[in-house]
Every structure is written in structure tokens, then in C-alpha cells.
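Onboarding guide, step 5: your first structure request.
Type a short instruction followed by the sequence, for example:

Predict the 3D structure of this protein.
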Amino acid sequence: MADSECLSAPGCWAACSNFSRTRQGILLFAEIILCLVILICFGALTSGYSSLSVTEMIFATLFFVVYMCDLHTKIQIINWPWSDFFRTLVAVILYLITSIVVLVERGNHSKIVAGVLGLIPACLFGYDAYITFPLQQQRHTAAPTDPADGPT
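The system replies with C-alpha cells like these:
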């Protein structure tokens, strides 16, 4: 009963929809859509290539829901920003490897299209990893120093 009241509350919906307008929200939504497109393209080739897109789409959806519902502040046992960074870094590496393997194989035009389209999410995940990493570095400021208290 309490869950249905929270979902119907305008404040809850506004909090959830505000994330989808941020840069991170747009990137995660674009990653989900691109993974779906690549799933269709790679699925036309063989099922082995489509498992990468399914996995990355599930992880991107998980992070989208976690950030959208503000669960990353409630579940603090996991370092969500670093987890998101490593998720995108692994996705870049795996999409690059898969796309290169598909492009190197001799085949029809659908393999070439799937290989080239596989490079697009690699670039998107790479951009996401790039903008996520600097947020993790804590900026240290110099400690204020007092005048020298030594003998004069």
C-alpha cells in the first residue's frame, strides 16, 4: 500500500524523472537503446555476439534504475560511481573486441554493418567512462597554514 502511494505522489515521480534529464541519465538511456539496436544486429549474425548486448543492456538498466530512484544514496555498501566506471570500461573493451572480430571475419554486408554499429556503443561507453572517472577523483585543497610560530 505504501509503495503505491509513493508511486502516485507527484514528488516521487518528479524525483525519478529529474534524473532522466541529466547528462548521466541521457547517457544511460542512450546506452540502453544502443544495446537494443546492437542486440538486433548481432542477433542476426549469431547468438554468441548478442550475449554482450544483453548483458550490457541489463547492467545499464540496473544503473539507470538505481540512479533514477536515488538508491545509490540508500545502498552505500557499494561504491556506485566506481562500479559505473568499471562497467563502462569493461563495456568499451568488450565492444571493441567483438566489433573487431566481426569486422575481421569475411562475410556478408550485415556483418560489416553490425561491426561498424558495434563501434558506436564502444564510443558511447568510452565517453561515459571518461566523464565518470574525473568525478571519482577527490579534489584536495591545501590546508590553511598559520604563520611560522618559530623563534624570531
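Each response can be followed by summary notes, for example: DSSP finds six helices and no strands in the chain.
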